[in-house]
Design a protein that fits this description.
Length: 69
C-alpha cells in the first residue's frame, strides 16, 4: 500500500508538509510521509491533470447549458 499512497493526493500532501509519525492528528487524516524516491513534482502531475480535466469538463458542460437555455 505504501507505493500507492505515495501517488495519491494525501501522500503528496504529507510529503510536501513533511508529516511525521509523531503527529497523530495529521496521520489520522493524511497519513505519514511516504518516503518515496520519486520526485514530488512528478507524483503530483497525475493529480493536477485529473483536476484540470475535471475543470475543463465542468466548464464545457456549463457552456453547453448556457447555449440551450
Amino acid at each position: 500500500m505504501k507505493p500507492v499512497w505515495a501517488w495519491l493526493p494525501g501522500g503528496i500532501l504529507a510529503d510536501c508538509m513533511d508529516f511525521h509519525t509523531v503527529f497523530p492528528l495529521w496521520n489520522h487524516w493524511w497519513g505519514p510521509a511516504s518516503g518515496s524516491g520519486v520526485p514530488l513534482w512528478l507524483r503530483a502531475v497525475p493529480t493536477v491533470a485529473v483536476l484540470a480535466m475535471a475543470g475543463l469538463w465542468l466548464m464545457r458542460r456549463a457552456d453547453s447549458r448556457d447555449r440551450v437555455a
